[in-house]
Amino acid sequence: MMPAITGRTGIIAHIGVPTESFRAPLIYNPYFADRGIDVVVVPMGCEAEDYPDFLRLLFRLRNVVGALVTMPHKVTTARLADERSRAVEICGAANAVKREGGRLVADMFDGEGFLRGARAKGCRVEGAAAIMAAAGGVGSAIAASLAGAGLARLAIHDTRAETAAALAASLEAHHPALTVETGSSDPAGFDIVVNATPLGMNDGDPLPFDASRIAPSAFVGEVVMKREVTPFLAAARERGCVTQIGTDMLYEMIPPYLEFFGLPTTTPDELRRLSQVAY
User: Fold this and answer.
1) Is 122 exposed, middle or buried (0-12, 13-18, 19+ CB in 10 A)?
2) Catalytic residue list contains 121
3) Range of 134's domain?
């Protein structure tokens, strides 16, 4: 049972379009109810053209704790913020906003979620070499977090050469010790292989990498959440690789989200347990 919403209830807005696929309310709200935290996550479908005005007005409400931001607003959020984390500066996108002293503070937790999940499975990032497909919002965030964790070498493959080059330049500016390459999609010789594309959401999608070229010792991560084991992950598992499903990243990013909003935090396992019980 969800507790009653009262005049004291804090609101975390979950902003994006379309809202029908949002999972955050199904994970956060059971946790808040279990802990007796008087906060609720509310989906808010806001169109791109309305978003800048809406975000500013939203944070004029007294009982707004913060906002979770998803597509298509992550890049716009980074531009609207008064203060940005290093991850936001690198990838040019944000998925969390809060108010501090009248200023909007933005951060990005996609990459932190991926990193925490990888480390929980024994993946060593420090000094490792990684290859990533796609340099968009989520890919950029993962790249920023891996770089911040001590990654030694990163290869970025994106069909949009200018997008890959822009991310490479940003990473090199913030992490001069990191070797960044663009162009090749060959995963041979890499310790970490990341699919940050939507490939795998639909039947018949091509694989983002040639799985037969991935070393069995490599760690393989996925961002697609529509299905738990994508064909790419299935192929990697056949090679003997340790893998990470897309929803692992989602659950792992919630604890740092809670910390960002100044709320009591928890573990990914507890969040999984409570969301399964409630829904």
Assistant:
1) exposed
2) no
3) 111-244
